[in-house]
Each structure stands twice: as C-alpha cells, then as structure tokens.
C-alpha cells in the first residue's frame, strides 16, 4: 500500500498552482521547549491552506466528460477554496456546499474564485448529504475533500517536501486531523522512506474522530462535533485515510480550545502569521507531547495547515490564549467591604504581577465578592503560590481558572443592581497601561468615598480603562470632581448613561 501511494505522490500534479512552502524554525518555541521546532508553512499557499494540493491533483485526473458535467464538493472552507481555484484554472464550473458555520472569509474567497456557494446545515455531514443529493439530481462530478486516493496523494506532497527539506534526524511530525487526507498522505510517504519518524495526529478534543476510530478498531460517527476549529470539524474519519492511519499513525493527541488559542499566539510570535484554529492544532499537540513525554534536544515538525479565519474571531482567541498557556489565574476572592480594601488587596498581589481583570459590585455592608484575573507564570506553581499568599493574608479564595461558566459568562455578567440604596456616582477612567498601573490608579483615587462598583480588563492596549462607582453623600459631587480634576487621569461621568441606568 505504501509503495502504491508513494508512486502516486511522486506523480501528483500540484505545482501548476501550489507552492513548495518553507519549513521555518520557530526560534522562540524551540528555546522554550528545549527542542528544535520547525513549522511547515502551508498557510502561505495561494488559498492559504494545503487543500489546493489535493483538490488540483484530483481535478487533473478527471476525464473531460467528468469536467464537462461540472464539479461539486462539500467543504468547511479550505477544500472549497482549493477546488474553486483548481476549477477556475482548468475552466470547469464548480459548486460548493458549505456548512452555515463556515467563516465568512472562506465563503467570500470561494465566491471570488468563481464558484457557486450553497450554505447548508450546521456541520460538514449535512453539507455532504446535500452535495451528494445534488450529484444525483444534477449529474455533477463529486470531488471529495479527503476520502480519495488522488486527494490523499496531493496532500502527501507535503510529506515529500518535508523529507527533502530536512534530511537530518526528525523525532516526530505533528499533523492536524479532520477527515484524515493530510495525515494519510504524509504518513504514507514518510513511513515508506523513514519509518523511524513518529507520525502523530492532533485533533480538537470535541471532534476527535480518528482517536475514536483507533480505539474501536473501526470507523465511528461522533454524536456531536465542536465547531471552534471548523476546518477539522468532521464526525467520521475517511474510509481511505483510515486504512493508512490505523497502520502508520503512531499516536493521536487531543487538545482543548484554550490550548489551540495559545498555539495561535505562539505561531504568530514566531512567524508573524495568523493561523486559523485548525492550522494551529498541530503545534498545540506538539507542546502537549513535549510536556507529557519530556522529549528534549530533538527535532519536532508541525504543519500549519491554514490561515483562513475571520478577523472578529481573534478577539475570542486573544481572550482565551492566556488561559490556554496557564498564564492567567481567574479567582473569586472575598475581601472586607470598606474604603481602602481594594488597594490593600492589590498590595498583597504585588507590583510584579499584572492584574488582567477586576469585576466587583457592592452587595452588602460586610464583605465584597470580587472576580479578578491575575497574570501568572505558566509552570503552574506560580498560581498556587499566589493563592497561598492571598489565603495567608486572610482572603478566602476560589480558583475559577478551569471553570468554563466563569470564563465564558460570569466575567461579563457579574454585577447587577444593588438592593441597597448607594448614593452612587459612576465615572469612567482612562490611564496609560503598564505593570503597577492599576495600583497606582487606586492610590490616586483617594479614601474618602467607598467604591461600590469596579470593572477593569487589560486587553494589552496602550490605555487601561476602568469603570468605577463611588458612594458619594448628597452634596459631595463637586468635591469629588474637584479631586478627580487634580489627578492626571482622563475621566467621564457616566451616572446618567442609559446603559448604567438600565443594567447596573
């Protein structure tokens, strides 16, 4: 089987449209992991994904009669772009059925290459069903995204390039897995030439169809598939890829959404390229493998399979990155209610630790419950040290760093209306962001008025932005603002703002 596939890979027609992408050393990641980490840059293809290889190789194998009927495919986006480009190059009409979850950047890219787009279903399986229905009704030629020997051979040229780009020893190659076309092609070529190299598949934990199939010894259909890494959101591994994977894939690693987000950041820092979640999957798995196996002084290669992500998704990725790297502790802390208690709490944290978030709403006269994010070192020990220091200072602490409800919802919903009349004035502040800036802000705020509302989130911007409620006795407002005018921070009074009036 391997010899047959190697011949097909060597004969694959991909370079009419595809590039031989570079194999770049990730210097920051290499130093951090004490291994030589190399990234195969398939995000640099003309369609920003490796999928152009398999799509074009399949297209050129079709007969003229098959091309004349027009081609159709189901795809979450990257195969769609590859097929659209291949069809345009060969003068063939193309129809693409895409799940409704597909990022708009992929939909528009397919349309821009002249293909007709049909949005159908909420996952790949539903899109596939509709595409096959159209094959029956309209007579289109179906071009599969992964479950086809010619597609696998096209993707296998990635492995062929790796072998001549890095002839020196390689410990392992990490490959993102959706339907399995890429890992099957890479495994076939690499294992034939250099069977000592480990081929390790990496899957999102909520779409781990290869892992499930290997455990059962047969292909299975997942009941549900997560869509964050939509490029690998496949419920069942392909039949043809599984024939290869069950024999020649050494291991499958699953990773979380937070770990994927952290890998997106890692790739950006080393290459200045923005990977899509499925593109960063392999590096997330590489990092986890090193942590679990303790591998050092070895060459590890990961394949960045694509860069097709919506810009607005980056906000979510950035929010989760620090958690994925375990660089942020999310804590619920009880502190005494009263003037100066915020500042005292910040002193316990210390100036060396950056406060990333601070949410608080006045609840009763005795105690204040705050939601706080604090930057910590990723080794795990720093978070425990911080929690211990707070408890030694008599602050009850609940660690919410692994609590999905807290991270996804509570941080945005914390607050509400106080049941106690507060005599509250609300101000919005802006100050230059730097370590210790929040404590400096609290030092300037004064001690004459109790804080009844506080929200702060560090987004890495040039300015920190804080919303503060102060309990101001009747007639003291002019005194408060006279004081605020003396400090160097810009501020706006928001007491009459309808958003505050309605929700806080």
From TrEMBL:
Matching InterPro entries: ACT-like_dom_sf (IPR045865), Ser/Thr_Dehydratase (IPR050147), Ser/Thr_deHydtase_PyrdxlP-BS (IPR000634), TD_ACT-like (IPR001721), TD_ACT-like_sf (IPR038110), Thr_deHydtase_biosynth (IPR005787), TrpB-like_PALP (IPR001926), TrpB-like_PALP_sf (IPR036052)
Reaction(s) this enzyme catalyzes, per UniProt: L-threonine = 2-oxobutanoate + NH4(+)
Cofactor dependency: pyridoxal 5'-phosphate
Assigned keywords, A-Z: Amino-acid biosynthesis, Branched-chain amino acid biosynthesis, Isoleucine biosynthesis, Lyase, Pyridoxal phosphate, Repeat
UniProt key word Cell wall biogenesis/degradation: no
A Pfam family recorded for this sequence: PALP
Gene Ontology MF annotations: threonine deaminase activity
Start and end residues of each ACT-like domain: 329-402, 425-496
Keyword Transcription attributed: no
Annotated metabolic or biological route of this protein: Amino-acid biosynthesis; L-isoleucine biosynthesis; 2-oxobutanoate from L-threonine: step 1/1
Enzyme Commission (EC) number: 4.3.1.19
NCBIfam families: ilvA_2Cterm (TIGR01124), PRK09224.1 (NF006674), PRK12483.1 (NF009130)
Subunit field text: Homotetramer.
Family designation: Belongs to the serine/threonine dehydratase family.
Described function: Catalyzes the anaerobic formation of alpha-ketobutyrate and ammonia from threonine in a two-step reaction. The first step involved a dehydration of threonine and a production of enamine intermediates (aminocrotonate), which tautomerizes to its imine form (iminobutyrate). Both intermediates are unstable and short-lived. The second step is the nonenzymatic hydrolysis of the enamine/imine intermediates to form 2-ketobutyrate and free ammonia. In the low water environment of the cell, the second step is accelerated by RidA.
Protein name stated in the entry: L-threonine dehydratase
The gene coding this protein: ilvA
